[in-house]
Amino acid sequence: MIKTVLVIAPHADDAAAFCGGQIIHFANDGWRVVMVRVTNDETDSIGLSREDTIRINTEQMHTAAKILGIQEIVELGYVTDTLGDVSRVALREKFIRLFRQHRPYAVMSFDPYAQYEPNLDHTVTAQAVEEAYWTATFDKHHPEHLAEGLQPHSVCERWYYARQLPRVTCAIDISSVLERRIDALAAHVEMMKNTLNQSRLQMATWGRRFPALDAAITSGNVRPFLSMWLRYQYAQIGAKHGMTYAEEYRVDRFGGAEALLQSESIPLPDMEDEPMHNRPWFEFP
Ligand SMILES: [Zn+2]
Q1: Of the candidates 129, 165, 133, 178, which has an alpha carbon nearest to the alpha carbon of residue 22?
Q2: Contact by Cβ (8 Å): 38, 95
Q3: Residue-wise pLDDT tens digits, 32-67
Q4: DSSP letters along 199-234, please?
Q5: Given strand 32-39, what is the order of strands in its sheet?
Q6: DSSP H or E stretch at residue 63
Q7: Ligand 1 center to residue 14 CA distance, Å?
Q8: CA 120 – ligand 1 centroid, Å
Q9: pLDDT tens digit string along 221-242?
Q10: Measured in whole angstroms, how far is the alpha carbon of residue 266 from the centre of its chain?
Q11: For residue 245, how far is its CA from the centre of ligand 1 (angstroms)?
Q12: Where do the domains of the chain lie, and which CATH numbers do they carry?
């Protein structure tokens, strides 16, 4: 049976920036990969109007999605950098509906317990998704969905990504897909120029400049700089786990009951009997 993974991305570039390697692995393994983009990214550029920013960021997102192997994108259309003013319960309903529609085996989302997360769009989305995991199983939450023919659904695997995870349970070797991952992030040209410009301004305050970073912003050819940056970042993570380049995640399924459920559960009659640990994820002591 083809498994679906729903990648929840507050912004167009979050998938490529935070979890691109594992998305490519899911796609290569034959999974159906669906991305949910929560906002419209209308503020994320330098020197462009909001209208052009929406259009160009969306085009570049579709290019990046093809590189990552994302097959479908669901747009929620919230205004970027304003989710702090949006009700998390209202946002939760969007995710409950998507869980019931797409019935994902796995969901990738920002970790709501992440440390040092300065972006409210990330935090609010993560909190709404976290509540959607369990409320999507209740028949008394949004019975209007059930009246439409949708059914309660529980996601099996939760893949949390973050700038700094509260706990790492899983390291994924991304050495074989690193170039593709860099290509995907580099496709977000306008968003990357704006990201790099933040560092340029900060360094200017410090009294220094980074010539390769300036060249990326000026030329719009962001790939050489991103390649250097991602190699530096993912080699450090890889070194912790005996890999060349790696991504880290907190993956949760059944919490403390995982071992009991693995030993005592039996396959459903209409499902393939799939061993739990047929993919390279593991828990650190
Ligand atoms: Zn983001």
Answers
A1: 178
A2: no
A3: 999 999 999 999 999 999 999 999 999 999 999 999
A4: HHHHHHHHT---HHHHHHHHHS--HHHHHHHHHHHH
A5: 72-78, 32-39, 4-9, 106-110, 157-161, 246-252, 170-173
A6: helix 50-68
A7: 5
A8: 9
A9: 999 999 999 999 999 999 999 9
A10: 32
A11: 22
A12: 4-178+247-264 (3.40.50.10320)
Predicted confidence (pLDDT) at residue 279 exceeds the cutoff of 60? no
Question: What amino acid is encoded at 169 in this protein?
Answer: T
Predicted TM-score (pTM) above 0.70: yes
CA angle 213, 216, 218 (to 5 degrees): 110
Q: Given this model, what pLDDT does residue 273 score?
A: 65
Distance 91 CA to ligand 1 centre (A): 16
What pLDDT sits at residue 55? 98
C-alpha of residue 193 to centroid of ligand 1, in Å: 14
Compute the residue count for the chain: 285
Q: How far is the CA of 46 from the centre of ligand 1 (A)?
A: 16
Specify the residue for token string 């880290």. 248
Query: What distance in angstroms lies between residue 268's CA and the mean position of ligand 1's atoms?
Result: 38
CB 69 within 8 A of CB 28: yes
φ, ψ dihedrals at 233, nearest 5°: -70, -50
Q: Look at residue 284 and tell me whether its pLDDT is greater than 80.
A: no
Q: What's the 155 CA to ligand 1 centre distance in angstroms? A: 23
Cα distances (Å, whole numbers) of residue 118 to 4, 153, 159, 163: 30, 31, 20, 10
Which chain residues have CB less than 5 Å from ligand 1, an ion? 10-11, 14
Going from the Cα of 11 to the center of ligand 1, the distance in angstroms, rounded, reads 5
**70 CA → ligand 1 middle, Å:** 17
Q: How far is the CA of 36 from the centre of ligand 1 (A)?
A: 12
DSSP one-letter code for 79: P
Å from CA of 41 to ligand 1 middle:
9
Amino acid at 43: T
